[in-house]
Amino acid sequence: MRRLKVVDSLSLTWLGVLFLAAVILPLVIAFDTETMSSAQRLAGPSADYWLGGDNYGRDLLARALAGARVSLGIGFGSVAIAALIGVPLGMLAGYLRGAVDAVISFVVDVVLAFPGLVLALALASFLGASIQNVMIAIIVPMTPVFARLAKAQTMAVSGREYVEASQVIGTPTRSIVWRDVLPNILPPILAYAMVNVGTAILIEGGLSFLGMGVPPDQPSWGSMINQGRVFISEDPRLVAVPSVFMLLTILGLNLLGDRFLSGNDKAGVR
Fold first, then answer.
1. DSSP 190-223
2. How far apart are CA 12 and CA 253, in angstroms?
3. Which of 244, 245, 144, 146 is closest to 195 using CA atoms?
4. How many Cα atoms occupy the beta-carbon half-sphere of 231 within 13 Å?
5. Is residue 69 part of a domain?
6. For the domain that residue 161 is a member of, what is the CATH number?
7. How far apart (Å, rounded) are the C-alpha atoms in residues 4 and 248?
8. In the chain, how many domains are there?
9. Cβ(259)–Cβ(4) under 8 Å?
10. Residue pLDDT, tens place only, 25-81
11. Is the pLDDT of residue 11 over 90?
């Protein structure tokens, strides 16, 4: 196996540290994200507040890590649900063809006719600000993309010799789809899913920045940027910290997705 490049190692390290600090550490130590201190208002880094305090005197690092927990949960959860819905539909359309393909493709094309971000904004504004509604606003435009990708991959794989051989000997369709088709279309889908986690985090941040995402009482990178922009000339750190967290996380996910895809391309499929 070829050694990972330095940038890939750094990406994996950042994501691992972020996951441990944002998801695992709170199970042991409770983050104080709401306590306000006038002495820490716009204060610089200290032994108590490693990244300083925000405009209300709250711990900026604790809020950034709490925002990471929200963003990672929404990102991975939304993409997982979208893939679990879209991939089976795409596989059905690509393998069965005919009327099934026509119906599924029509629904997919209708949803994809709307720009994804515009559709997410419309859904979020209609449903209201909550974590569940943000996930719905991300899942709806993302599911058809997984369906289209799965359909294209299934059509390519279903014409190969080993699939045709299974059809000739009378193997049930369910077995062919799950044993022969799915393992061979999974690598590009997983790579695409990794990249789309970053996209989902970006959409959540944008919605939260506009006040249509995570409720104000829950820390979010987008809402932190929105609150800090008022003080950007006085203390750019309030915007820089959540922005850097978001940038490094999305960049790391994109790089790992590319590496995963290129690694599977070199390994080949059955």
1. HHHHHHHHHHHHHHHHHHHHTTSSS-TTS--HHH
2. 8
3. 146
4. 17
5. no
6. 1.10.3720.10
7. 18
8. 1
9. yes
10. 887 777 778 888 888 888 888 888 888 888 888 889 999 999 999 999 999 999 999
11. no
Which of 190, 188, 184, 181 has its CA nearest to residue 84? 190
Does any domain span residue 134?
yes
pLDDT digits (tens, 9 = 90+) for 189-206: 988 898 899 999 999 999
> In this structure, what token pair is assigned to residue 105?
């493709």
pTM exceeds 0.85 for this model:
yes
Please give the residue range of the domain that contains residue 198.
74-265
43 found inside a domain: no
Q: Is residue 9 part of a domain?
A: no
Assigned token pair, 108: 């997919």
Amino acid letter for position 152: A
User: For residue 53, what are the β-bridge partners?
Assistant: 59
Please report, in angstroms and rounded to a whole number, the separation of the first and last CA atoms in the chain: 19
Mean pLDDT of the chain: 87
The rounded percent of the chain whose pLDDT value lies above 90 is: 44
Coil, helix or strand for 65? helix
